[in-house]
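We emphasize that the prediction below concerns an isolated chain of 318 residues; any contacts that depend on oligomerization or on bound cofactors are therefore not represented. The input was used exactly as deposited, without trimming of termini.
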Amino acid sequence: MQPLAQVPSATDIQQSHALIQPYIHRTPVLTCQSINTISGAQLFFKCENFQKIGAFKMRGASNAALRLDEAAREKGLATHSSGNHAQAVAKIAQALGVPAHIVMPENAPSVKREATAGYGANIVFCEATQAARESTLAQVLAETGATFIHPYDDYNVIAGQATAALELIQDLPDLDAIISPIGGGGLMSGTALSTHYFAPNTKIYGAEPEQVNDAWLSFKSGVRTPHQGLPSIADGLLTNLSEKTFDIIKAHLSDVFTVTEAEIVAAMQLVYERMKIVVEPSCVVPLAAVLKHREVFAGKKVGIILTGGNVDVRKLPF
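Result of the prediction step, given as a token string:
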């Protein structure tokens, strides 16, 4: 199957879903009556925290790797990532029996560093800046001939991430809304495409931390605008949108919401206490947005993608 060079079509997403089946879990959709009561809505949680490597990133990395020809794949896969995408690239490389070269910032969470190493990846550490990531990766690519799998600015990755919403819609075709967190926008743009194609009457929303509000700024202005780079507990959402992801988001979303750090922590604690499942801060941002904007979602059936559960349980923020 050929790599995708343009915005994925409905057929592209369906073909990607079929392609990655042997390498992913079909994750469950859970509900919680007490959270429904608190929110005033019917919430359906697509639990990608139960995905292989503990996050949705396995979908996009698998699709990108499997679309490479055999000669390219055998030279190995490479990426830069602070966590979940690193693990996904390492895991699919391990499954395919090819090398994985992962550039990670020195401050990447230890739980994610250890997991990436556990999948057999060659890890190269760099300073915690985007420039250092990119320059270190360029050196790795030159030395190894590996193929770079971008965390989000890649239509193959976007099509893979779109399969989470595809499954959610297959299970619940009559949702009023679907909401996803936004970092670099790979999951959000994939979610937007699947919802647009397969549930055209369902509204699409995104959510991100106030501290890293580039998607909100960009969506409101119509011009891609970077955030100020403030720290956030939602470590998976610190990247800015790319041109590919912003173009899709701009075309299909109804709105983008922002939430405070305290609202993220409160939503995370609520999931732990009421649902009894492990989630990381980034993945509860959409729930925090639903709780903050009850008037938008009141009485509606809302799909929420819980993106991952790779959290250091020794450092919970509550």
